[in-house]
Specification:
- There is one protein chain.
- This protein has about 140 residues and is mainly α.
- It has nine helices and no strands.
- It has one domain.
- About 60% of the residues lie in helices and about 0% in strands.
């Protein structure tokens, strides 16, 4: 059943600082920080960090770690089979915190790209995230025109 699209939520400077401390990473604040530092070989670290978040973890903390997971999974170093293998774990996080993570998921859908151009204009993970999105939310109205 589709839900309404929640209000946007984003990661914060504080959540980046927290993630950097947890993972022993440098903290040059940048709007692309999760993408700059995320490495495929550290994907398990990011999953572990997300799993350690308790009920008191903020949305920005969850969002910044999910951004790192999506970048690490999508940046091209995983084979197609490995990406297909890791997707259920990502989907489980999206299912668990759908409304909190919807802004991030919507970004990774790259709705501006036509389906046939998604390989060139989107991310490797975009087709998976689009499928998840369609099962949970309507396609954003400004894109349906």
């Amino acid at each position: 059943m589709q839900r309404h699209i929640p209000s946007p939520q984003y990661w914060s400077a504080e959540s980046v600082d927290w993630a950097a401390q947890q993972l022993g990473l440098s903290y040059p604040l940048s709007q692309d920080w999760p993408w700059i530092v995320a490495k495929t070989e550290d994907l398990e670290k990011y999953f572990r960090l997300y799993s350690q978040l308790d009920d008191h973890a903020t949305a920005p903390m969850r969002i910044v770690v999910l951004e790192m997971i999506l970048e690490a999974a999508s940046n091209g170093t995983l084979s197609t089979a490995e990406l297909q293998e890791v997707w259920p774990r990502i989907k489980a996080l999206l299912d668990q915190d759908a409304d909190m993570l919807s802004t991030t998921a919507q970004y990774w859908c790259v709705w501006e790209a036509e389906e046939q151009n998604l390989d060139e204009e989107g991310f490797r993970i975009s087709p998976y995230v689009r499928k998840w999105w369609r099962a949970n939310y309507p396609i954003p109205s400004k894109l349906e025109e």
